[in-house]
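Researcher: Please translate sequence to structure tokens.
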Amino acid sequence: MSLSKDDARYLWHPFTQHGHPETAFLPILSAKGSFLYDEAGTPLLDLISSWWVTTHGHSHPELIKAMTTQAAKLDQVIFAGFTHEPAVTLGRALQSALGRRDVWKLFFSDNGSTAVEVALKMALHAQSNWGHPERKRFLAFEGGYHGDTVGAMSVGHSSGFFDPYQKLLFPVQTICYPETWWHDSDVLHKEEESLSILKQHLSSGEIAGIILEPLLQGASGMRMCRPTFVNHVVRLCQQAGALVIFDEVMTGFGRTGSLFAFHQLSETPDILCLAKGLTGGMMPMSLTCASEHVFDAFLSTDFYRSLIHGHSFTANPIACAVANRSLALFQEEDTLKKIAALENVHRRALTALENDGLAHRPRVLGSVAAFDVTHECMPYNTEKNHWLKSLFLKSGFVLRPLGGTLYLMPPYCTSLNDLEEAYGRIAKILQQVRP
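Model: Translation complete:
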């Protein structure tokens, strides 16, 4: 049996142009820690955490134990009219982990796109229940990516991924994003321009809410902004009566150096979307976390004032059990300290790459490092992009450039020596392909 041949015959992969002559799918047979292993047993250092989901490492024994123990006890139960211990335990544990509010109300779903979809429905419906039906529009930042369902695509339309689906999308007003990097001398001007546009939109009185990836936009090229700017955005929106939604699907669970990105801010969102690292990357599950103020807007004897939304696998007990164990590991393994050590390696390595003229617009935040490989903007899907991916793979690690941006987001268990060695190989490859 050939996995590659049967894959080509039967399967349809995400974000893939199957007509491209170089399209091929490398079979992975196992994974452990920060490494993936192919059919020949070749180790590949997973420098993108398998699409940003793996936190403590692949096949972590404690997560496997939590999964198998729970599967033998209670695998699934409808969450409408029933509850169970793993979900309640997770709700209790996340109150402490999230902080900032007396109570966060947690709504379970299956993936990041759906968590965003739920957040948009919450915001729009809450405004209506409060007697503000005129508040029916959303704001988003240019380049923001929030998922692939219809609502998530609508608020992320400026990312450039969704042109074929424009007829499905509802209109969303966008604000220029003041991305910044090391040695950026123009950041204040960019922030002032963004805030000016934001104020104009808020003055209409029609804004139900705003959604943003706090501190770090992922799919648009790991673009970063300053905490002071995000604080201004939150204050202006909440003062104007618009709900603030933070999409922490990627930035949550340690990616930015704190357990959640909003912990680096003085302000707190009204609604928070979590997924990816929620279960350490082992099980699909997501959460939309709402303030008590938002939750209370739905309290009524009228069914149609409730949040009419649900999924077959809402609060799946196995996923909840894994999420509980993953959250506990942050304390037990002193994970934030590991992330700080990875960040130090990123900073040293990017400084060297910049000094050698190999890294442009370098930026680092927690476990995430990114830089542009050229001064010019490079489209997302180019021959050079495919070529770089193949060169990295041949060198023993998994990297997936975002257009002209190269980023590293390793699992937190990655050894510092492995990360330093990877940077050395990256430098040699970039020297070979330098124009």
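Researcher: Any highlights?
Model: The CA atoms of residues 378 and 404 lie 5 Å apart.
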